[in-house]
Write a structure and sequence with these properties.
Blueprint: H1 6-21, E1 52-56, E2 59-63, E3 70-72, H2 79-86, E4 93-96, H3 108-113
Parallel strand pairs: 3-4
Antiparallel strand pairs: 1-2
C-alpha cells in the first residue's frame, strides 16, 4: 500500500472537519448566530484543541497541530475551498484548483479567484 502524502492527509483531514461541521444535530441558534449549548458537540480540531485524533477509513490519525499549508484539488463542487475560506484558512492555501466564478456568499467568488494556484496547469479534462 503506498504511503499517503502529507498534502493528501491534510486535505482529507480538512474535508473530514468540514463534513463533521455539516452534521450538527442541534438546530437551535444562539444570539450570536452560533448554536446554543453545543460547544461539546464541536469537534476538538474545530475548537483549535490539539492534539486531535480523527477516524478516517477505519484508521485513527492523530494531528499535533493544525495544518500549515493546504492544497485544494478540483472536485465536484467549490464547497471545499469556500468552506476553508469561511473557516479563515485562506492564508494557508498554497494551491487552489477549485473555481466556478460565482458564489451565493457576497465577495466569495473574488476571494477564491485571488487564491494562489501554485502554478498548476489543468489538463484538457480540467484536472490538475
Amino acid at each position: 500500500m503506498p504511503t499517503p502524502r502529507p498534502a493528501a492527509i491534510t486535505l482529507a483531514t480538512l474535508l473530514c472537519l468540514a463534513a463533521t461541521g455539516c452534521s450538527g444535530a442541534d438546530s437551535g441558534s444562539g444570539a450570536d448566530g452560533g448554536t446554543a449549548g453545543s460547544a461539546d458537540k464541536v469537534p476538538p480540531a474545530a475548537r483549535g484543541t490539539y492534539p486531535v485524533t480523527l477516524k478516517n477509513c477505519g484508521r485513527d490519525q492523530t494531528f499535533d497541530k493544525a495544518p500549515g499549508r493546504v492544497v485544494v484539488m478540483n472536485g465536484a463542487s467549490v464547497a471545499e475551498v469556500s468552506t476553508l475560506l469561511a473557516l479563515g484558512q485562506g492564508g494557508r492555501i498554497v494551491s487552489n484548483q477549485q473555481t466556478y466564478g460565482m458564489s451565493e456568499v457576497p465577495g466569495r467568488a473574488e476571494e477564491i479567484k485571488d487564491l494562489p494556484t501554485g502554478r498548476v496547469e489543468p489538463n484538457d479534462e480540467a484536472s490538475p
